[in-house]
Specification:
305 residues, mainly alpha, MetI-like fold, two-stranded antiparallel ribbon, 15 helices, 1% strand, flat, MetI-like_sf, transmembrane
Length: 305
């Protein structure tokens, strides 16, 4: 086995050489920083450094797990990410199928370009525009509600409306870009399958549900499994850009990342923030591994590894 590996390295040396920059990049920026996990178990002092700071064991984790706040914050984080994953997948799939079915013309290509533009707009910029939409007195949404003789909404003091707003904002920004992935997968489906189905009298909708969606199953499952790895990572840029440090909305909008960010500003403890980041990473890793194991038992071709 050892000699076979060396032989493969020699025979495919040019291919490995092409992959070398990506390997070095991963080692430098993905694996080397793992040394920083030590900070989660230390009273980290930048002057003493990583290897000379005081070891405090699990004390940093008590910062997050004391009381009941950690449970509410964790549930909020999972709830938001679950909504983002489900709605994002459904809308992206629908957009990809619709644009593919409409064929190739100037209008469709223009729509594809317009569809992915929001992806390149940063959340802080979107958050600035959101003020114009949701301000109580002069906001566009409340002006529209008044024009329709409906009761205006105090958005920045009404917690229950923000999950809906965040889902819409996330779809506006990311669904178009995600649709490109599914469109690429749809283009790769053998066209003879559709031709044979039409010859048998299948309608366009039947082709979508009997051919397109089943052929996209592996892609959908793989992207879903990859998304699970970050389900404990709150979309801080989105949420914080919209509401900032509004204590009236913490009950429904406070996520792990925002909680840690706020705690880091107040206490300045890098050890506490690293402890929560480690908690997020471990849970996300376990979710991906368990989901992949279950997927492998049900459909081996759809598993990541």
């Amino acid at each position: 086995m050892k000699h076979r590996g060396i032989r493969d390295l020699v025979v495919n040396r040019y291919l490995y050489l092409l992959a070398l920059p990506a390997i070095l990049f991963s080692l430098l920026f993905s694996y080397t920083p793992l040394i920083g996990i030590m900070i989660a178990f230390e009273d980290f002092n930048p002057m003493r450094g990583l290897f000379h700071s005081k070891f405090v064991g699990l004390d940093n984790f008590k910062f997050f797990f004391r009381g009941e706040d950690w449970l509410i914050i964790t549930l909020n984080t999972v709830y938001f990410n679950f909504l983002f994953i489900i709605t994002g997948t459904v809308v992206a799939l629908a957009l990809a199928i619709i644009l593919t079915e409409l064929g190739k013309n100037y209008f469709i290509r223009s729509m594809q370009s317009v569809m992915i533009l929001p992806y390149f707009i940063s959340w802080p910029i979107v958050g600035l525009f959101s003020v114009a939409f949701f301000t109580a007195d002069t906001g566009t949404v409340n002006q529209l509600l008044k024009a329709l003789s409906l009761q205006p909404v105090e958005f920045y003091s009404t917690p229950y409306v923000w999950p809906f707003i965040f889902v819409l904002a996330n779809l506006w920004k990311g669904a178009g870009f995600s649709a490109i992935i599914y469109m690429a997968a749809i283009i790769g489906i053998d066209k003879e399958l559709y031709e044979a189905a039409r010859m048998d009298g299948a309608t366009r909708m039947q082709c979508i549900f009997r051919i397109t969606l089943p052929m996209l199953k592996s892609t959908i499952i793989m992207l879903f499994l990859l998304s699970l790895g970050s389900i404990f990572v709150g979309n801080m840029e989105l949420i914080y850009s919209f509401i900032g440090d509004n204590p009236l909305l913490f009950r429904t909008t406070d996520t792990i990342d925002i909680y840690v960010f706020r705690g880091l500003r107040n206490s300045g403890s890098l050890g506490m923030s690293q402890a929560i980041a480690l908690y997020q990473s471990i849970v996300g890793f376990l979710l991906v591994v368990c989901s992949n194991t279950l997927t492998k038992k049900l459909d081996k071709d759809s598993a990541i590894f």
